[in-house]
Amino acid sequence: MKMQNMIDKLFQKDERGYLTKRESNSLEYKQNFQLGDNLLKYVKTLAGMANNKGGIILFGVQDSPHVPIGMSNNRFNETDPAKIDQCVREHFSQELKWSSKIYKENERQFGLLIVEENDVKPIICKKNANNILREGAIYYRYRGETKEIEYPELKKILDYEREKERILWIKHIEKISYIGPKNVHLLDSYTGELSVGNGKILLNEELLNKIKFIKEGNFTENDGEGYPTLKLIGDIDGIVNASIAVKPDIIYPLTTSDLQRRLNLNQFELQAIISKLDLKNKQKYHTAIRSGKNAQVHKYSETLIDILKRMLSNDNFLNECISEFKEKQAEIRKLRKSKRKK
Fold first, then answer.
1. Cα(180)–Cα(196) distance, rounded to whole angstroms?
2. Which of 28, 199, 240, 276 is most buried, by the most CB atoms less than 10 A from its CB?
3. Which strands sit side by side in the sheet containing 286-290, from one edge to the other?
4. Does domain 249-341 have CATH number 1.10.1660?
5. Three-state SS for 109?
């Protein structure tokens, strides 16, 4: 639906049948799709748009005035997208997030090359080509033209990239502080080495490739937010030092009694908090260790202490937990009583 809305806006016309949208820093019109040097010009424009905010090259539009007459040849349909992608990868430092689409209006066909704004900028040309592309050049899409970037735009990109890196470091440091340095392990996604204490675990290439795609998405503990995550189930091959295997007691060192003592709570108050926060279903903070055929010992992470202390600093939090826990217990007793009568 979003793509269709975008195309509908592109094809809005005035009373003369001219397209109302003019060429801009995100839009370029072409009559027909061509190969050879023209393909180099297209990828140059795509790279320039990706260095800005992304954009579209629309084929099938007459130049001056911009009248949508449709493509007069089939080269766009007949060209394998892999050929365009190969040209991009051959001449530019980074892959572009681009796609192609064919749009039909009445009997006329239009081609679209669509490129997203790149996550990492600037994209740099790495190879000379027919006096169209220059090695080392950074192309940028200005209003109605693509050319080598000027100082103000380059400075803006570099400042923004430095700010992104600064914010990323802050987030990493905050996470380390939150988790605790002793519980943080570092994964080198290039070599596949996972640092654990004084040893390392080496992930095989197949598993490493599965892990890498996490970088394209985000993580969430909230249901229904729709962010992609990867859940790994199974064995990790290639352990360099098996003696460094992490035991549950290291990650979850605290018993229920430890929590009570550290938080100065009685058993009922702690049960109320555990129930409200559903901690026994939060693997980050809790695990159950089997101590017999049907018995379990509940263990908790050290990081949970600081979280609960912050929550307990709110005067109403504990009272809310107790009130909800009492209601829940009353409902359970009522249900059990009802079952016994039946």
1. 14
2. 28
3. 254-255, 296-300, 286-290
4. yes
5. strand
Q: Which residues contact 88 (CB under 8 A, 6 or more apart)?
A: 43, 46, 47, 95, 96, 98
Residue with tokens 């903070």: 285
pLDDT in tens, 67-108: 999 999 999 999 999 999 999 999 998 889 999 999 998 889
Count helices and strands in the chain by DSSP H and E runs = 11, 14
- The stretch 267-287 carries a mean pLDDT of 89
Rounded to whole angstroms, the Cα distance separating 33 from 113 reads 10
Query: Both tokens of residue 43?
Result: 């990828």
User: Which residues are CB-neighbours of 114 under 8 A, at least 6 positions away?
Assistant: 54, 55, 56, 98, 99, 100, 101
Whole-number CA gyration radius for the chain:
30
Here the contacts of 267-274 (C-beta below 8 Å, separation 24 or greater) are 268/322, 268/325, 269/318, 269/321, 269/322, 271/325, 272/318, 272/321, 272/322, 272/324, 272/325, 272/326, 273/308, 273/311, 273/318, 273/321
What span, in angstroms and rounded, lies between the C-alpha atoms of 84 and 91? 11
Positive/negative CA dihedral, 202, 203, 205, 211: negative
Please name the residues in contact with 139: beta carbons below 8 A apart, sequence gap of 6 or more: 44, 45, 47, 48, 51, 123, 125, 146, 147, 148, 149
Tell me, rounded to whole angstroms, the distance of Cα 215 from its chain centroid: 6
Q: Which residues pair with 290 in a beta bridge?
A: 296
DSSP-derived pairing of the beta strands 54-59 and 61-62:
unpaired
**Cα–Cα distance for residue pair 94/86, rounded to 1 Å:** 12
CATH topology of domain 2-148: 3.30.950
Spatial distance between the Cα atoms of 101 and 113, rounded to a whole number of angstroms = 7
Residue 118 binned pLDDT confidence (cut-offs 50, 70, 90): very high
Q: How far apart are CA 96 and CA 154, in angstroms?
A: 19
pTM to 2 decimals? Answer: 0.56
Q: Kindly state the DSSP code that residue 125 receives in the 8-state scheme.
A: B
